[in-house]
Amino acid sequence: MLPVAFTRLQHPFSEETTTYSVNGILMILAFFICRIAVYPFMFYLYSRQENIEFAKVVGVLPNICSISSLLILLPQLYWFSLMIIGASKHFSNKNTVKRRQKLNNNKLD
To answer: Measuring CA to CA, which residue among 10, 15, 56, 55 is closest to residue 31?
Structure first.
C-alpha cells in the first residue's frame, strides 16, 4: 500500500515542480522495495533458516511456490519497467525544457 500513497500525492502537483519529481522517485523506490526486492529477501531468509546456499533455494522449494512467486513477480517487473521509462522521459523532457529556456535567455541578452 505504500506505493499507492505516493501515487495519490502526485495528482495535486504540476509535473514541472520539484515536489512532483521527488515524489515520483520515492514512489519508484518504495515500489521496488515493497514489491520486487521482497522476493530475493524472502529467499535469502529461507536459505538462512534451512542452511542452504541462496542459489539453491528455488530448486529446494516446492515447484508450486517457485512458479507462484514467478507469476506474481512478473507483473511487478512489468510495472516497474513502465515506471522507470516514465521517469526517464520525465527527467529527459525536464532537462530539454531547461536547455531551451537557457538558450532563449541567452538569445535575449
So the answer is: 10
Cell 506505493, residue located? 3
What is the spatial distance between Cα 40 and Cα 45, in angstroms, rounded to a whole number? 9
Say how far apart CA 60 and CA 52 lie, in whole Å.
9
Determine the residue type at 98.
K
Using 50, 70 and 90 to split pLDDT, how confident is the model at 34?
Answer: very high
Give me the percent of the chain exceeding a pLDDT of 70. 72
Q: Which residues of 67-98 are buried (b: 16+ CB within 10 A; e: fewer)?
A: eeeeeebeebeeebeebeeeeeeeeeeeeeee
Q: What's the mean pLDDT in 84-103?
A: 76
Distance from C-alpha of 3 to C-alpha of 73, rounded to nearest angstrom = 16
> Cell digits for 45?
531468509
pLDDT digits (tens, 9 = 90+) for 78-89: 999 999 999 998
List CB contacts of 44: < 8 A, sequence separation 6 or more. Answer: 54, 57
